[in-house]
Structures are given as structure tokens and as C-alpha cells.
Amino acid sequence: MSIHTIEVLVENEPGVLARVSGLFARRAYNIDTLVVGPTSNPEVSKMVIQVNLEGHSLEQVIAQLDKLISVISIEELVDGAKKPVKDTQPDYQN
Amino acid sequence: MTTQHVPTANGTAMSGATSLVKSLEAANVDVMFGLPGGAILPAYDPIFDSTIRHILVRHEQGAGHAATGYAQVTGRAGVCIATSGPGATNLVTPLMDAGMDSVPLVAITGQVPSAAIGTDAFQEADIRGITMPFTKHNFLVTKAADIPRAIAEAFHIATSGRPGPVLVDIAKDALQTQTTFNWPAKIELAGYNPRITPDNQSIADAAALIAQSKKPVFYVGGGVIKAEASKELAQLVELLGAPVVTTLMARGAFPDSHPLHLGMPGMHGTVAAVTALQKADLLITLGARFDDRVTGKLSTFAVSAKVIHADIDPAEINKNKFADVPVVGDLRETITALIPALKAALEKSRPDLTPWNASMQKLKSTYPLGYTLPDDGSLSPQAVIERIGKISGSETIFTSGVGQHQMWASQFISYEHPRTWLNSGGAGTMGYGVPAAMGAKVGAPDATVWAIDGDGCFQMTNQELVTCALNNIPIKVAIINNESLGMVRQWQTLFYEGRYSNTSLESKRVPNFPMLAEAMGCVGLSCERPEDLDATIEKAMSINDQPVVVDFRVHRDAMVWPMVAAGTSNDEIMIARATAPDWDSQEL
Fold it and tell me: Is B460 a catalytic residue?
């Protein structure tokens, strides 16, 4: 199954959607759907992204996303539940 | 050289512009390279009074590469500053360049007043949007009160973790508004927490894997220099006694004179270095990123090797090549932890590396780097570069442009120390050489700094020699003048049947480089005959109160060898045109 759903908490600041969508575009990752909404913390927004991997690894997509300073944390959603991201190195939930 | 600034007390009232300058002082900036314009003009007024040395460049691209050269030599963040619109877009190439080579850079740009943003105002460009793909991070500041925090965060992000460029775009009205200075005591970024200390299990796994390997090779990248880990690397290499290769970005990380050093791998690497990676059973990868110029065709790269990949950037792990043992952390900490772990592992089992080392040493002696002198007795470009290296010595700092002269400068100069070889590795930016040399000389004023440049590259950024002449920055520039875009011409020779479409620059006719140099306040020299070579270099070495430019008029048909053609396997390395190494006589 090459479609995965990830939940990404980001700083609620101008341009953050461009940072995330731009990363997907320039690394040729494919977004199937993307939803952005508020969280209980006004400084933090939540993005739910369905990514169609098409040959890329989920680990690499997450690692590249995590390099964005505005990205706070990333989790994969599996059957509606949050699943800890399997990773080479645990920096994602910092 | 660190300037001691008088610290500014938090709560002091001042303009946003003054708070910018006070913030740069608080970040211990001692020099910046820039050029003013309308939107950044408010900042230039307090710069006039600052203890920070501002070097007025002739083109913003020069400011960016100079800041990079400064950063590469000192290990500190380089700073460049420009106005909005075209001033800012002229920084785009240096920012991309610094991103590709992980250089700590802070770029400050003026932006049109916040009310005018989005109106296509005069000199408006969305520089934050433009630089998003290749900056480590960037900011658009529209409120005066936010300036000190943005600057503090910019320096923190640029210099920590995997270093990189950060841009701070500041709206003109934010610079003009009155505010109170507030320098943050501590920086906390929820989304940024680079891992510095590697985990113990990875170190133990790496040590165990190394202790089982019969054919290991150290694949050393620029990260070793960034992490100041050369001393630790030397200890690790001595402990294991395995061969070492240093990538284009890592030249100088390990001494070229060391017997275990096989040279540079990759497209123009040595036969021994390329073959060591291909035939190894283990790559001990330290701060390198499996770039296509190193791996050749990836599916055929080091197929029987296990991989230890140590890097500070988790996203490099498994990006191009699967890592059996990933180790994320600062390289100096990583190598420091690996030494005792490996010592212990080797006490339990120590494979005999003698056959492996012997076959690599045989390759090294059978296929040394070399060149043939031109038949017509004209000047050989490789000989020019080799002699400059020999005469100038190993304490010299070298920069280069991009192309044949860059590869020869990497091949034929012996690098013994980190931070003595500066070039544009990832981006391949023609024109990097002269401004980077300017920044390097500012960062290391007591060192001899040579820019090994091509005649094509030199014509892109030589205007900064005016800056050098006026600001007492006496760099030396060797133009390796083959009157061509030499590397492109080489590809046309090899892959386009010698159809030299638009690669002839006619630089032996126009411009007259020595006269151009003199016009810019430099000493201009010229050398055409091999018998004059040493005397010309020595003449250039004797001039230390002015920049010197030497036009070395070399043979145009020299080519860079060895070569692994783009997209082919490293196994297809050629030592000369249509000449492969004699593999049958080698036991690997």
C-alpha cells in the first residue's frame, strides 16, 4: 500500500503551508489530500496529509519534513489511530 | 579574530534598524559583506557607527560567496546584507550554493514596507518564497520588536546541527519604527532540536561491524571538516589501519601525505579511491552523502559493501544508499565514541587487513594521478596548479571556480589541513573562486589565499577584485586560461564528436586579463612559457600589499582524468580517453 496518512503539527505562521507543499513538490512526493486546521494551541496548526509514495519511502518523506524548522512533530495515522513513526533515528517527536 | 562589542542592555529604546545592528553585535559578528539600497537603507545608518566591519562589495553575489568563504575558513557564520528585489535575488545563487555545501550563512535583506508587500511595489521580490527551497530556514520580519529574536534564531539555526544558510527579510517600516531592544537569553524552537550525541547502540553496532570487516574503507565527507573532527578521524584511521578516501568537500580533512590516503573518489577520483569504494565490504561513511558525483550509477555502486553511515542529518540516512548501521549525531562526538568501542571490539577479533591494504596500495602506485605535457611545449594547466601548490605550501588556503581547473586543483595540490580547500561542490557555482577567496582572506588575514580560477569563471565575478584592492584584501588569483569553458569542451570532445558549440571564449584575445587586473587596482602578471612558470609564481608570492592576478595561458586541449562518465558505473572508470585500468593484473 503506497498511500499513507500523516498528521503533522506545525507552527501557525504565515507561509507554513508553502513550506510543506513546496517540499513535497520539489522532492516529487505526491500529495493525495491535505487538510489544515487549528489545534487547541493557537500557535500550532495541524495538517493531515495523505501521501502517495510512488517509490519514495515514508521514512524519507518524514525525515525531510522533519527538517523544516516550522514542523513540530509528525505521526502516522493507521486505521484512525496514531502510530509511532518507524524511523532510523528518533528526532521526529522533538 | 573576534571583536569585543559593548553589550547592549535589554530594554534600551532604539529604532528597529539599530536593534538589527545591536543584534548582529550580540551574535559576535565581526565582519559582513554587503551593498545598500532603498529598503535596507535604514540599517546602513547605524552600521556606519558599528564596530562591525562592513565590506562594500561590487555585486551582491560577491557578498554571498565572500560570506561563504569566510565561514568555510573560520567555521563561524558568514554574514551578507543586501536590499530588496534585485539586491536580494542576487543573493539567491550564494544561498543555494551554501545550502548544497552546508555552509553556515546568515543573509539579511531589506523588504519593501509591510503595507506595500504584495502590491508589486518598486524593488519588491518575495525573497522568502524564492529562497524557501534551499535555505535551512528563513524569516520575514514585519515588526521592529521581532528583529532581535529573528537574528538570534537565524544564527542558532545556521550554525547548529547540519549548518546551512538562513535568510532574514526585514520590512523597511520595521527598521524605521522605534522599539526596545530585547535579545533573547535562550533560544527554544519547538520544531528544531538536532541530535548531537549518537546513541550507544549505534556506536556499538558500528564497532562490531568494523571489527568483522576484511575490506573496510573510510568514506570521508565534508561533515568531518564542519564538525572539526580531523584529529579524531586520524586517531580512528590509525586504530583500524584501513584506507581512506576524501570527497571533493573533504579535501584536507585527512592529510594527503598519509600512506593510507587513496585520494578523492568520484567522477574525477583516483583509480584507487574509486576502486576501494567499489570493492569494499564495508563503507565507514563519515559526513558524506552518497552524491551522484561520488557513486556514479547508484545501482552498481559498492554492491558488496555493508554501510555504516554517520551524519548529523537524519534525512541523509537511506536517502540514496541503504545504511546497515546509521549513526546520527555530531561527527566529532561520534568518532570520539567510536574509538574506544572499536578498540574493545578489535581486541576480541581483528581481521587481517593486509591483503586488502596491499591491493589498494598497488592500485595507488600503479595508477597515480598524472598528466602528459603538451607536445608543442606550451604551458600545461595541471603543471601550473601543481607548482602553485608546491611553491605556496600546505598552509595556503585555496579556492576555486568550477570546472577543469577545480578538479585539477583538487587533484594536484596536496592538502594537509582542514579548511584549506574551499570550493563549490554541490552547486557547482562558476564564479565562486574570487569572492570566496576575498572572504577567506578576511577570515584568515595572515594566510596566503590563492584563487585557482578558470577564464570562464573569472569573467563572472572578477569585479570583487576592486573590493579587494580598496579594502586591503590581498588575494592571489591564478587564471588557468585555456580560452574555453574547459569542462564543457571536454564533454563535447568525449560525447559530442568534438562539436565545440559555444565553448570557445577567446580569452587569449579579449579581455586582456593583466590590464583588467591593473584597472581594478591589482597587479597583473602573465605567463605563457613553462620556463617562466616558477619565477612568475614566486613573483606573485612576493606581492603581499595588493591583490595579484596571473594570466596563465595554458594549452586548451588538456583533459581531466581519470573520469567516470555521468550516469555510468564506477567500474567503467577511464584513466585516459578509451583507456580502462588493466584490471586483469589486479587482485582485488
Answer: no
